[in-house]
Amino acid sequence: MTQLTKLLIVPVLAALFLGGCAQIPLTPPSAKAEIVEKARASRLAPINVGSFKPDPKLGAENDRGINVRSNTLSSPVEGSFAQYLRETLIVDLKASGLYDANSPATLSGFLTESLLDVGIETGQSNLGARFVLSNGGKILYDKELKATANWPSSFVGAIAIPQGINQYADLYHKLVGMLFDDPDYQKANSR
Description:
By secondary structure, the protein is α/β, with parallel strands linked by helices.
């Protein structure tokens, strides 16, 4: 092996072993126009948002981070994807005028599924939550909803990882939209 070959191999090996490990936080939640418009057009009553926790079946470690190839995706909201879902819901409700911190009707939840798989050919993401609407101690709504996404992925991490993170982050608004669209939720929380 020539000296030049050795000089070229060392940086390549270093890049392979050291270059990919990173902590990647999601961007903080912001209101999504289509969800806000949907909520404004509904006959939903303003609500308060209570606690959101990881479901015991999900496990605390899956609430704190998701491995994406050699990186770890995390939540910027208290380091918890359950809290990220809560904040996404609050942001969308506030933007649509349907958040009332003094309302006796309170929506709480449990994050039941959180998955991001950035494959070489195909990417997949799943997000699930059980939403519970209560008023005065009476449960008006209790249902688990799941959102999924599939997309063509890439072998190249610099393309596949950001694409996967965007797909995963979009599922939070998709899940909130599914809640607002659910006829059972609309019945339980109509004006």
